[in-house]
Amino acid sequence: MTIEGGALGVMSYMVRPLFDEVFVAGDAASVRWIAFAIGGIFVLRALSGFGQRVLVMSVGLKVTTALQTRMLDHLLGLDARYFQDNAPGQLIERVRGDTQALQATASAALMTLGRDTVSILSLIAVMLWVDWVWAALAFIGVPVLMLPLAGLQTWIRGTSRRAREAAGTISTRLDEIFHGIVSIKVNRLEDHESQRFGREVDGFLSSQIRAEAGKAALPAVIDVVAALGFLGVLLYGGGEILAGTKSVGDFMSFFTAMALLFDPLRRLSSVSGQVQGAAASLERIYAVMDAEPEIVSPPAPQPIAPGEIRFENVAFSYGDTPILNGLSFTAESGKLTALVGPSGAGKSTVFGLLTRLIDKQSGGVTIGGVDVAQASLQDLRALFAVVGQDAALFDETIAENIRLGRLDASETEIEAAAETASVTEFAARQPKGLQTLVGPRGSALSGGQKQRVAIARAVLRDAPLLLLDEPTSALDTRSEGIVQAALARLSEGRTTLMIAHRLSTVRDADKIIVLEEGRVVEEGRHADLIARGGAYARLAAAQATEEG
Ligand code: ADP
Questions:
Q1: Residue with the nearest Cα to atom 5 of ligand 1?
Q2: What was the pLDDT predicted at 332?
Q3: How far is residue 290's CA from residue 271's CA, in Å, rounded to a whole number?
Q4: Which end of the chain is least crowded, N or C, by CB within 10 Å?
């Protein structure tokens, strides 16, 4: 950068001997060395320019990718709650868009600062060396234009911030549209979505154009400075030449330096605009990096072992809305305990508290007598295998999806798990068997097949505590039968907590707990609860009529 930048200063310096010795004094011998010197400077400038661009770009790219990796690592450690408050599109835009905006600017700023600062200093040196009064005149416009320059910087930062936020909204919308494509189509919402997207894109457009206009205005201000400078130097310096106090070489050298000076100055001002834009991105990156998880391992974690699950007088609320009010129950070791009750009663909340995706406000949640908050998050979560309503498959093969249960599992273990969970039954019909791709979010599989893959994952995981969140709720009777059988094999001998909507699935549970509004209203075995004729019997009767 220094070589490339300094080359300009040397060139403008060379103009003086060129004029005074060759053109004015008529010294033919000098013409050769001056010509070669100028040619040499160009070659040197080309080589050093190439080298520094490659270097700066690769540094910029490495920094960006390292930053992206660090942001993701940080995000992975944040509470589940953070991802409810911040839409995926917004986070994607921060990890991808903001880091890229930063990279482009950082590279440009580095190059400009390294190279153009040297150019500017060397050119100013030449100007001062020729005549300091002329040099002072060249910068006559600067003081007047300081204020507009500062105002422009603030404006660019504000508009850039709004543009980045709008970009996040666009990504969020796209994410929602692509994930919700089926319901958009069946509800014929294509036009509605398209119009809404159009409005959001327009919002982004107007902020971005404002930011770009602000950036473009900065070099324009520099041009005005240049115009005033040239005017001053021409009027004053021109007189001195005519009067014979200065040589033509002096004037040409000065003029070359001044003409060359305003280009890097313009670039520098334009980079300062980009830096303001990048500052807006940087603020958004810091906002992610400054977020801290609330749910963390205690400083001195206790060992935790599988055992009885016990809730004692647990209270939990989302903001001001109480969800659980003094919930107490026990799920015995090695037994199947079912949680039933109307939707919204707090059944899934129980799972969240057990795995510490959320934290209780008061009361005790213990496993084998140890409070979940006393154990390290790693140890605690190692106790559980979870099969939820949504099988959460990734766009990989069936085998790879099963492997997520335990990353170091062998092929044989994966095949055995697939067999136990009745995955083999449908996978065998595919030409590629377990190597069949499941599509984005498992879209190439049916609901029942997805659930069976999720169960195979839990089988492979072989965790002592099993949490089942209505895994058969969305299935037809035949699939339900197969999945039920697979679940029965899985839960055999394990402490299992199962959320169930269809009461048919809990008949054989060792204990059924009926929740209403965050409280236990009844508990016992199926036959006893039916005989009692209370809340459970009413639920059962209601379902019997529904199913006709
Ligand atoms: P269930 O599993 O019994 O259907 P949940 O435990 O999922 O019920 O939810 C209990 C209540 O908590 C519901 O009223 C629901 O609206 C509320 N709720 C669940 N998640 C959140 C959340 N992230 N923010 C605010 N309220 C929530």
A1: 346
A2: 92
A3: 27
A4: C
Determine, yes or no, domain membership for 463.
yes
Is 218 inside any structural domain? yes
Beta strand 362-367 pairing with 370-371? antiparallel
pLDDT in tens, 450-488: 888 998 998 898 899 999 988 776 667 777 787 788 788
| CATH number reported for the structural domain that contains residue 363 in this entry | 3.40.50.300
pLDDT digits (tens, 9 = 90+) for 151-203: 999 999 999 999 999 999 999 999 999 988 989 999 999 999 999 999 999 99
- The pTM of this model reads 0.79
User: 204-235 pLDDT, tens per residue?
Assistant: 999 999 999 998 898 888 888 888 888 888 88
Residue 175 included in any domain: no
Ligand 1 centroid, distance to 524 Cα (angstroms):
25
Q: What is the pLDDT of residue 287?
A: 93
The residue among 351, 348, 327, 358 whose CA lies nearest residue 518 is 327
Q: Among 83, 327, 339, 349, which residue has the most ligand 1 atoms within 8 Å of its CB, making it the best to mutate?
A: 349
Residues 97 and 227 placed together within one structural domain of the fold: yes
Ligand 1 within 6 A of CB of 183: no
Count other Cβ atoms within 10 Å, centred on residue 423. 30
The rounded Å distance from CA 243 to ligand 1 centre is 90
- The protein residue with its alpha carbon nearest to ligand 1, atom 18, reads 318
- In which domain, by residue range, is 340 found? 309-547
Domain co-membership, 272 together with 317: no
Query: Sign of torsion, CA 76 77 83 84?
Result: positive
Ligand 1 binding pocket includes 323 (Cβ within 6 Å)? yes
Q: Please count the structural domains in the chain.
A: 2
